[in-house]
Amino acid sequence: MYDIRWIDLDGLVNLRDVGGMPTVDGGVIVAGRLLRSDNLQELTPDSLDRLTGELGVTDVIDLRSHVERAREGASPVLGRSGVQVHELTLYADDAAEGGLPAEEHELPWVVQARRLRQQPTDRPRIVPTGTGHDAFWSRHYLGYLQERPDSVVAAVRAIAHARGAALVHCAAGKDRTGTITGLALVVAGAQREAVMADYAATADRIDRILERLARRPAYAENLRGKTKAEQSPRAETMGRLLDTLDRDHGGALGWLHEHGWQDEDTVLLRAKLREG
Fold it and tell me: Where are the beta strands (DSSP E) in the chain?
């Protein structure tokens, strides 16, 4: 397959470069163009300097919800010269306004789960077949596409249009980050098996990720009672997500085109992430 390119940076435990990933036509995804990570809230000043200097990050795609940002704080790179932060929530159930401050609202995935349990079972949704761990998580990821297609398209487009390296992150760098980077890589022509392997690589850092989140104000309570096995990604989950898009939408690119993606975006994304 290919070697996962971990990057050690104080304040992050799940940072890697997807460069070196093989493509379907025998090429590779270029290194230094697309990074993925867990949340940035514990970055040290030296780490911030390295991120925007040596690693060349000019665009940060922050997939945290409004509630998370209210509880955790804005991105530490916000306002940094030469860096654009794209704040894109992937949840419809996300409080940006309302009678209560955002930090007093429930996390949007908690609200979403309760709402979906209460919906009539005949409401049409794009869902993978089967049950179990992989079906559960791929269904969750497809929920991002169904509920916030605007944010999904904007996130992949931000990667394509980034002046330098693009960094995609959420809280753990696992689910939302895995979905957006997976879509971008498939559209760029990366081999499906490599995309699946990259998604699953987060399992190698899951102990450190959960330990880190458990001390953060937005996530500690929500993690109570959840097991390492439940939170560990498996390659098959990404495979189910991509299979469902192939079955129902003609693939990731087909889904994107249904929601406003343009041919010029594809050209830019492939030029960004591919050799030549």
Answer: 5-6, 16-17, 34-37, 57-62, 84-87, 165-169
In the chain, domain spans: 5-120+129-273
Copy the structure tokens of residue 26.
Answer: 């025998």
> Can you give the pTM of this predicted structure?
0.89
Phi-psi region of 82 (alpha: psi -120 to 50; beta: other; left: phi over 0): left
- Phi-psi category of 263—alpha, beta or left, where left has phi over 0 and alpha has psi -120 to 50? alpha
Q: Report the CATH fold assignment for 5-120+129-273.
A: Protein-Tyrosine Phosphatase; Chain A (3.90.190)
Determine the Cα–Cα distance for residues 6 and 253; give it in Å rounded to an integer.
28
User: Which string of DSSP letters, residue by residue, matches 134-203?
Assistant: HHHHHHHHHHHHHH-HHHHHHHHHHHHH-SSEEEEE-SSSSSHHHHHHHHHHHHHTB-HHHHHHHHHGGG
Q: 131-142, pLDDT tens digit by residue? A: 577 777 788 899
pLDDT (tens digit, 9 = 90+) per residue, 209-264? 999 999 988 888 877 878 888 889 999 999 999 999 999 999 999 999 999 999 99
